[in-house]
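Its record is retained below.
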Amino acid sequence: MRVTRRHALLGSMALAGIPASRAVAQGAPAAATGYPTHPVSVIVPFAPGGSTDFVARLLAQHLSTRLGQQFVVDNRAGASGTVGQSFLARARPDGYTLGVVPNGTFAMAPFMFERLPYDNDRAFAPIGMLATNAMFICVAANAPYRTLQDLLAAAKAKPGTISYASAGSGVANHLGVELMLDMSGTEMLHVPYRSGAQGVQAILANEVALSFVDSVTAVPYLRSGELRALAVTSAERSKEVPDVPTVAESGLPGYRASTDFGFFAPAGTPEPILRQLADAARAIMLSNEVREKLAPLSIDPVGGTPDQFGPYAQQERDKWGALIRKRNIKPE
């Protein structure tokens, strides 16, 4: 089964309930006056399809309805998300350019590059945490590994010979593996691809042994039986695939590595606009309608406040920065 960019885009739009002919649904104008008075751009620093794009489109659809103006997703991919993040940093801080950004970009990428075209600590105003998306440690259905313990035992027996795919150096599904290797004292061979979908194809073609696959991509393959999940990287088991143990349950206590989706504006955006967006995003993400659309893909809504999200983002930067320095991880 070949995953194309078009299939991924149409799939994410369909799952979000967005007609393929229109990326953003219009609704009746909200009662609020003032902001917004014209369409708002929502930057996604990755290509269409996949979990970040899915969450952004779902949010944009409901913000359009709730606030009475179109919120239009603008995909600007490249360099572990830093191309899109750079565009967001340069945008006018007026509330009309926003970003849905995963922790791979806001907490990991800054430590992967010697220089960034923006100041990661000062260029952005956090609006809130939207959701968190577990990854599954996936192998082919015919792989010899039945459990994570099997896989790690094989890796210890032959260090550096078992290969794993990622969507690029320094992104969440690369560093999630590196954290596992660091905690377990094992080594594997990293094979970066251009996207998570290509990594899945590499598993199916037996080019690599495994990959950490985000739940949006993984769940359909797990249900079809084409992939086998050895563990899930979240702190708790997935409600949709409850038979799969967590990494922590599989012998690495305290392990957690998920894709977390943050909502940002450029620094200097007026506080009233940030509060309005934060309140709207929180209500949307915690609504029953959105919960029902996220649940089948093992995406957990958070709907956090700016005050909660700022310290969490710093905690994530500290965690992944320390790992990157310890393991001397460099762009490939």
About this structure: Residues 1-32 have pLDDT under 50 and may be disordered. The chain has eleven helices and eleven strands. Residues 140 and 203 are 6 Å apart (CA to CA).
